[in-house]
Amino acid sequence: MSEGVRWKRVLLKLSGEALMGDQQFGIDPKVVERVAEEISEAVNLGAQFGIVVGGGNIFRGVALSAKGGNRVTGDHMGMLATIMNSLTLADALNKKGIQARVLSAVPVPSICESFTQRGAERYMEDGDVILFAGGTGNPFFTTDSGAALRAAEMQCNVFLKGTSVDGVYDADPKLKPDAKRFDTLTPGEVLEKNLKVMDAAAIALARDNSIPVVVFSIKTSGALVNVLRGQGLFTVIED
């Protein structure tokens, strides 16, 4: 445990939509600035950070296949969207004096480095924030699964999933105000209750590697640092 934080090495998963703010598409610079500030504060408390950002604010692979397009092509386009988001957040962190590096599972050497576990390990030990872009590099896998994979590879102590709500509910609290919120769940309960937290592959990978999943609201100012201190509202998923 690092001074001031509950977990030393963190994998933070952010949805692409988290960067949209109130927009319908794209990236809101004010949101990126706020998220970068919170990550910067957490890093200064002693946490080592790996980050995976989804690409749904720009493009979703399933959207193409739903309209008759090729799913593999769509997923490749989605991977490129995650690289764009990662570059944006890395730039914001670098401007705050936090060394951030984008490592992509999809080779784009003229834009960023390619991911290797050994390279990422060296950077994290040096205190750099790593943005793992390009998902797993394979179609048909979500960025949640990619994040769980990176969390296992980097031996992270926790998988933080920043969402638009402050934990896991038995229904969408935006549509059902009396939805029940859970403080704790086991991976088995998540799968049994078919709770839409993340896909089953991601849950299983985190469970098999004994990595707790903590779901919190990234839209709540200060929530990231509070969660790292074990404070505030969140749901913990672990056996």
Automatic annotation (TrEMBL):
Q: What class of enzyme is it?
A: transferase
GO MF, any single term = UMP kinase activity
**Which positions are annotated as binding ATP?**
K13, L14, S15, G16, G56, R60, T163, Y169, D172
Question: What's a Pfam family this protein contains?
Answer: AA_kinase
Listed GO CC annotations: cytosol
Q: How does the record describe its quaternary structure?
A: Homohexamer.
State the name under which the record lists this protein: Uridylate kinase
Q: Which organism is it from?
A: Pseudovibrio axinellae
